[in-house]
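Good morning,

Both structures are done.
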Amino acid sequence: MRMREQQNIVIVPGLRGHVEKHWQTVLAARLPGARTVASYDRDKRDLAGRVHDLEKVVEEASGPVTIVAHSAGCLTTVHWAQSTSLPVRAALLATPPDLSRPLPAEYPSLWQLRASGWLPIPRTRLPFTSIVAASSNDPLGEEQQVRELADAWGSHYIEVGPVGHLNPASGYGEWPLAVSLLDALSDMAWGASVLQSADALAH
């Protein structure tokens, strides 16, 4: 990973506890200065608390951040983006669930998620560059539904193959592609910044 991507990385986990072998944990350990939003002890329904935790971590960062979110962490990020005024360079949103079908028994019901504000999923364009990394066989996200979310968010949609829900239960573990996607995301964000600066000068 190039030096400019090593700064101000914020990891946003999904509805899980701390998992030592999860690819986000491995990535955070590799990146100097990476911060993880540690909402592990919160009730899985507590969207407001998770949004608050994300706001606090980003607020404490020195300058714009790049977010690396997984699963429900993608939805936390999208909900948070509706209200924050903090600077964000870009976001990698890996295997967001579409919440169009019941989740496994250890997770809240769709009714509980709706009552807690998770649903409806925001479909407003994100105010920062983003990539949605989608699995072709994700049990929690139907491909067409995830593609529609990516389109609504203005995200670049990239199918990363049959990786399940991209978690240890699916065999991940370390996910080396995350580094390559962060490099690509950084280039995209840099290009967008140059275009915005040029447009401002032209006007």
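Second structure follows.
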Amino acid sequence: MGRNTVRIQFEGSDGERYTIKLEGNISKDKVSRIIDMYDLLAKRNESSDLLQDDTTYSQLRRFVAEEFTFKKFTSDQLQEAFENRYHHPMKLAAVSTYLSRMNNVGEVSRVKRGRKWIYRLPTPSEVESQGSDLQRRIQFSKIIDR
């Protein structure tokens, strides 16, 4: 290939964006090495994810998976249910931000109804159809959370 610029951008679950910019003589091999590096980091951190998953975001993810498995919900409904269970106030803006991030990595799906977003967990077939790209985004967001 000739002289090019390639930008690879990842978004963490907390909304941070990470950009890797390659300039010059870029080959498929070089881009492949970056993806391999990402894969190594993801595998290396899988076991530590299980031990250190105690952030508000991870609590909210677990809560959604437990309480809203077969239900559609809004951010207000999630906020109310979460506060009732944990007896800890949470701003609606924070809940909306977390849900937006979950949507970005495919952990929830949403549709707009009037002025509100209606969320739901994706079905297993939807997760399968999104394939490894979804898994990479989820794994990368877990790495970024550290």
